[in-house]
Design a protein that fits this description.
Immunoglobulin-like; five-stranded parallel β-sheet; alpha+beta; 20 strands; 415 residues; Rossmann fold; five-stranded antiparallel β-sheet
């Protein structure tokens, strides 16, 4: 028995030492360097470092070699001779440097290289040469046994990127990267992050420059990398495909979870902006190990875009699924709940519109006399407004709300 315990102790110590030797190197351009996120800890590399190095103590080192403005040619191996009018490899930040930093890692899978060149130069570069560059970088990264993950292109609409042809090209590059390197070796920086109307970054994830992701966008990238299990270590609970499906009067949510043991519960959270989430429902987990499918329906979704995610706990640490979105068509102008108190001389109301605009509000008495006129700016989606009322005797009054598109609503209230 003592010998068995000794063997078990040695095995645990061996696994601990092995996990502590895991390292990652990120090479690429501004998204890799953390541009758009503030502070740096909110970037995807910053989150990765905290989660795998500080929180889980899996990685012993995380190196970030991202440089704003870098192209895929600068990430090529040191021995590569670029064609005319293309940049030479950067010995301080290229794949050769990444391999050097991982020298001596146990093989396989303890050394990870993530390559992120999502857009720089892609207005000029052809898709075949982009694929050749990324393939050369990938081959150099993996030839000694390290694992490599390639990020796809990402939405961008500044300057020369704001044309239909280039927007389509960036989407084609995304598809080409996934086809070439397979979904198992790519990190999708496009799907769920772009606005289908104009191929820009969704406002909830945009840093405001039409190029970079904000903190929420970087979080999504980290969650997608986290879901890849880059160190080939399956965490206690793994969330698989998480989908949301709009219905006539609700939204269906469905996900799979790989559980080595009983899952306590999943929190379904919803957000109007993709940043601030609130608890909708807590769903009990299955009481057995294995892969399970979960379903739940949101019977009262928000107008416009609803952002959903799952939250669950492992010990004291919360974990989150990727974020999924559902769009519900907005009315041109609609008034929801109205609440008022006679003594407060104020009405709280919910107003939903399908566009940013300034609405005209008019309050009249039963004789048609206008007691108050005002203008109120509202944004696309759900607005919670507070309207001050004039001093008037008790009675029935009417509030007429008119939008710039000609739509109007009249609601009565007892004051």
């Amino acid at each position: 028995m003592k010998q068995l315990c000794l063997v078990g102790l040695c095995l645990c110590l061996s696994l601990a030492v092995s996990s502590q030797s895991m390292k990652i190197v990120a090479i690429g351009s501004s998204t890799t360097s953390g541009t758009g996120a503030f502070p740096y800890d909110s970037s995807w590399v910053g989150r990765f470092t905290y989660y795998y190095k500080t929180q889980l103590s899996i990685a012993s080192a995380v190196y970030n070699l991202g440089v704003p403005g870098a192209t895929c040619y600068r990430g090529m191996p040191a021995t590569y001779a670029p064609p005319l009018n293309r940049e030479a490899p950067d010995a301080a930040t290229n794949v050769s440097k990444a391999v050097q930093l991982l020298a001596g890692m146990p093989i396989p899978s303890n050394g990870i290289i993530i390559v992120g060149y999502p857009s720089n130069g892609y207005v000029t570069y052809s898709i075949p040469e982009i694929m050749q560059c990324l393939q050369t970088i990938y081959d150099s990264a993996t030839r000694l046994g390290n694992r490599c993950f390639i990020t796809t292109s990402q939405p961008r609409t500044d300057g020369g990127y704001n044309t239909p042809a280039i927007k389509r090209k960036l989407a084609d590059i995304k598809d080409s990267i996934i086809r070439r390197f397979t979904a198992a070796n790519t990190i999708n920086c496009w799907d769920g992050l772009f606005n289908p109307a104009d191929s820009s970054i969704l406002p909830a994830y945009s840093a405001g420059d039409n190029v970079h992701f904000n903190n929420a966008g970087h979080r999504v990238l980290f969650e997608r990398i986290q879901a890849m299990h880059v160190f080939s270590m399956v965490l206690p609970i793994s969330i698989g495909k998480f989908t949301v499906t709009p219905l006539d009067k609700g939204v269906d949510l469905q996900w799979t979870a790989e559980q080595p043991a009983e899952a306590s519960s999943f929190e379904i959270q919803r957000s109007q902006d993709g940043i601030h989430f609130q608890l909708l429902h807590r769903l009990a987990g299955m009481a057995s190990a294995g892969q399970h499918t979960y379903k739940w329906t949101d019977i009262a979704p928000l107008p416009g875009i609803s952002y959903y995610r799952l939250a669950f706990r492992e010990g004291d640490a919360p974990r989150y699924s990727t974020t999924a979105t559902s769009t519900r068509r907005l009315p041109a102008l609609a008034c929801g709940a109205m609440k008022w108190q006679r003594g407060a001389r104020q009405i709280q109301l919910q107003l939903t519109t399908d566009a940013n605009q300034v609405v005209n509000i008019m309050i009249t008495n039963t004789n048609g006399q206008v007691l108050q006129r005002l203008q109120q700016p509202v944004r696309c989606g759900l607005n919670n407004l507070s309207i001050a009322l004039p001093a008037s005797p008790a009675g029935i009054y009417y509030m007429r709300i008119s939008g710039t598109n000609g739509q109007s609503i009249t609601r009565s209230f007892l004051y």
